[in-house]
């Protein structure tokens, strides 16, 4: 049946070609531009490949590609390496904080009576549906020097009127912003792992005289590890490239690579350098991304 | 460790939800503040909402955003569902690894990279940037989310129903619309909604891929937020929050009711 095969082929081909054209090809273009030089032209980089000019011109253009931009980005004189390091650091600390905040919540939800679990789950997901930008914006009003947090602390007599806490525009505000915005991404995989756990294991441990805390480390924690990995990767990878949170909550000295890339692109207008920054960011993230993909694919196949 | 909640569980849930909801609640409360000062309460007022409806720029941006989100959600749902079928029903095929990689990677890809790469593509093929380029970009990253949501439903359902239809001579095309689609419909609907809100929400990718003339609501809000907190923005945010909350609750009640009906039908079928 020819039509059957055609239909089958179409179902595969349409999303496949779409993603090839709008996900993979753009990356190849970014890579190519990262090897080009800035130019005052439209588009603002050289060389451009034009097949109509023949094979010789194409080869010539190919010879013009160079790794110059990578040298620029990786030189210690510029702030890029520092920005990569500080992004990884901030994302790493945030991920640990997320795990510490998210785990008890997910654990409590998994222990809650079955009847209220869907409601709890929905309450965790609901903030995720509200705009990311709005949720970050909400913290500006809370953390600013004359903001609600400082007013509360002042009313309680903890701080003086003229010595407000400086939280907004510091790294602390960035941590708070990331933990707040990414919390559902941490809770959901943890909850999924914890909910599946067999409670009788803990009962058995208790019957055999194992104290609850030891039982937690010996049984619950190891069994929840897939959820821990999924949650951490789901938070860590996008947090490294985060732009909105450091831009709105961070200070002028908060260095994150997403913000640097944006500035390089929109203020310095160097498309070639921002492409090189993007390629290197991808290289930094490729190991966690591949790890995450395998986890996802295995999860789907196992069920 | 006994079943049921300990005080520790209750406290952590309560604190967690307080952390999640207090900022949003404060934002909503202060949108009704009479004072222009965001942090000083000066009585209840709906002044800022009226102000908002006279802000033509903001209304234009909202209209662009809604159109982009609607188109995005619809196309992304079709493509995402096709991708989900491929990944759950086709077994191993050449290029599968690449395909599943392209479906999962955008879920965690930093937005600045996706935005930059799509912009450079649009420049390379030299198309006018604006409404359509934002929509293409949004479809690309949201279809992956749709695919994951639909996949999770496809892997859990009883495949013998599909096989029975095929054995009885139903074409694969018809089988999909008569058997598969009705069963996975709740997932398809939540996929659509997810794509819609992701598109509604996106700032970074839209900023990269837009051109003159197409400004979305998040871009407009962002440029005002950079100048400081204003009650007018609080009011705009409150309206968005209200819309999303109502839609999410409505859909979750719908899917729950559908689930109950389905179970009832299954029980009847089993009894008869």
TrEMBL record, chain A:
Q: Which PROSITE patterns match?
A: ABC_TM1 (PS50928)
- InterPro entries, per database record: MetI-like, MetI-like_sf
Where is the protein found, in the record's own terms? Cell membrane
- Record bears the keyword Endoplasmic reticulum: no
Q: Where are the transmembrane segments?
A: 9-31, 88-108, 120-140, 173-194, 223-245, 271-292
Domain annotation ABC transmembrane type-1: ranges = 84-292
Keyword flag Transmembrane? yes
Please report the record's description of how this protein sits within the membrane.
Answer: Multi-pass membrane protein
Its primary localisation, in coarse terms, equals membrane
What is the protein's name according to its record?
Putrescine transport system permease protein
Automatic annotation (TrEMBL), chain B:
**How is the protein disposed in the membrane?**
Multi-pass membrane protein
> Has keyword Transport?
yes
Coiled-coil ranges per UniProt: none
Chain segments annotated as transmembrane:
7-32, 68-90, 102-125, 131-155, 176-198, 233-254
Q: Which Pfam families match?
A: BPD_transp_1 (PF00528)
Keywords annotated in UniProt: Cell membrane, Membrane, Transmembrane, Transmembrane helix, Transport
Q: Give its localization.
A: Cell membrane
Natural source organism: Ancylobacter vacuolatus
In terms of InterPro entries, this protein maps to: Bact_Polyamine_Transport, MetI-like, MetI-like_sf
Family statement: Belongs to the binding-protein-dependent transport system permease family. CysTW subfamily.
Question: By what name is this protein known?
Answer: Putrescine transport system permease protein
Q: Where is the ABC transmembrane type-1 domain?
A: 62-252
SUPFAM superfamilies attached here?
MetI-like
Q: Does the keyword NAD apply?
A: no
Q: Gene3D superfamilies given for it?
A: MetI-like
Name the source's superkingdom: Bacteria
């Amino acid at each position: 049946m020819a039509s059957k095969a055609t239909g089958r082929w179409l179902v595969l081909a349409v999303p496949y070609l779409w993603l090839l054209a709008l996900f993979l090809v753009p990356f190849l273009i970014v890579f190519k531009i990262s090897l080009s030089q800035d130019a005052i032209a439209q588009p603002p980089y050289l060389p451009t490949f034009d097949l109509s000019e023949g094979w010789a011109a194409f080869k010539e253009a190919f010879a013009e590609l160079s790794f110059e931009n990578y040298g620029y980005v990786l030189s210690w004189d510029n702030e890029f390496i520092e920005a990569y390091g500080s992004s990884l650091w901030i994302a790493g600390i945030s991920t640990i904080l997320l795990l510490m905040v998210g785990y008890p919540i997910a654990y409590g939800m998994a222990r809650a009576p079955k009847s209220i679990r869907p409601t709890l789950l929905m309450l965790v997901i609901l903030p995720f549906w509200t705009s990311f930008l709005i949720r970050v914006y909400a913290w500006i009003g809370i953390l600013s020097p004359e903001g609600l947090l400082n007013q509360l602390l002042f009313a309680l007599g903890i701080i003086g009127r003229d010595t407000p806490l400086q939280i907004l525009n510091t790294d602390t505000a960035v941590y708070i912003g990331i933990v707040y915005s990414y919390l559902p991404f941490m809770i959901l995989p943890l909850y999924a792992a914890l909910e599946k756990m067999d409670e009788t294991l803990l009962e058995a441990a208790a019957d055999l005289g194992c104290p609850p805390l030891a039982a937690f480390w010996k049984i619950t924690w190891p069994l929840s590890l897939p959820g821990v990995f999924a949650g951490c990767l789901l938070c860590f990878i996008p947090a490294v490239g985060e732009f909105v949170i450091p831009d709105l909550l961070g200070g002028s000295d908060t260095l994150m690579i997403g913000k640097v890339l944006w500035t390089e692109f929109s203020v310095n207008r160097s498309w070639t350098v921002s492409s090189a920054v993007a390629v290197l960011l991808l290289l930094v993230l490729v190991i966690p991304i591949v790890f995450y993909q395998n986890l996802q694919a295995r999860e789907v196949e196992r069920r | 460790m006994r079943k049921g909640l300990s005080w520790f569980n209750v406290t952590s849930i309560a604190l967690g939800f307080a952390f999640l909801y207090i900022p949003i609640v404060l934002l909503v409360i202060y949108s009704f503040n009479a004072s222009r000062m965001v942090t000083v309460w000066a009585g209840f007022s709906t002044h800022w909402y009226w102000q908002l409806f006279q802000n033509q720029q903001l209304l234009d941006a909202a209209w662009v955003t809604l159109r982009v989100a609607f188109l995005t959600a619809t196309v992304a749902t079709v493509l995402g569902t096709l991708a989900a079928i491929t990944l759950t029903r086709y077994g191993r095929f050449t290029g599968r690894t690449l395909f599943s990689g392209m479906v999962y990677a955008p879920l965690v890809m930093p937005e600045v990279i996706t935005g930059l790469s799509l912009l450079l593509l649009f420049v390379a093929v030299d198309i006018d940037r604006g409404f359509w380029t934002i929509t293409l970009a949004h479809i690309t990253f949201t279809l992956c989310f749709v695919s994951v949501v639909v996949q999770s439903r496809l892997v859990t359902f009883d495949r013998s129903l599909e096989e029975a239809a095929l054995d009885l001579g139903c074409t694969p095309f018809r089988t999909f619309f008569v058997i598969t689609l009705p069963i996975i419909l709740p997932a398809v609907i939540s996929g659509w909604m997810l794509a819609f809100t992701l598109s509604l929400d996106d700032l970074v990718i839209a900023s990269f891929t837009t051109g003159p003339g197409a400004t979305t609501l998040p871009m407009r809000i962002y440029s005002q937020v950079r100048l400081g907190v204003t009650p007018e923005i609080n009011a705009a945010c409150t309206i968005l929050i209200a819309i999303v909350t109502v839609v999410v609750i409505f859909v979750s009640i719908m899917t729950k009711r559908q689930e109950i009906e389905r179970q009832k039908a299954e029980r009847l079928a089993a009894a008869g």
